[in-house]
Structure of ArsR/SmtB family transcription factor:
Amino acid sequence: METITHSTVLGRFGHALSDPKRARILLTLRDSPAYPSDLAQTLGISRQSLSNNLACLRGCGLVVAVPEGRRTRYELADAKIGHALADLLAVVLTVDPEYCADAEVEGCC
């Protein structure tokens, strides 16, 4: 098993959270494991889009697929990911509109 650095872990987490659909999937799975059909319906996204985003989250190591007979359940790869999401949601950001007014600005949030 490969050992990854802290910066790699944060990079994977950042990549996952950089897409609103992936962030919503993670937040939904934080509450409880779910099946793809239920996730697609709950989030209001197509199954194809959900599948692509779940593949990305699996590749980042944030979610795992658990086979259950003919179905597959998805859940967070580690309960600590749910705690990390809760901690991130509790952070209060002070945004400087002078620098982050335009999301298209390179390096800007």
User: Anything to note?
Assistant: The mean pLDDT is 88. The first helix runs from residue 6 to 17.
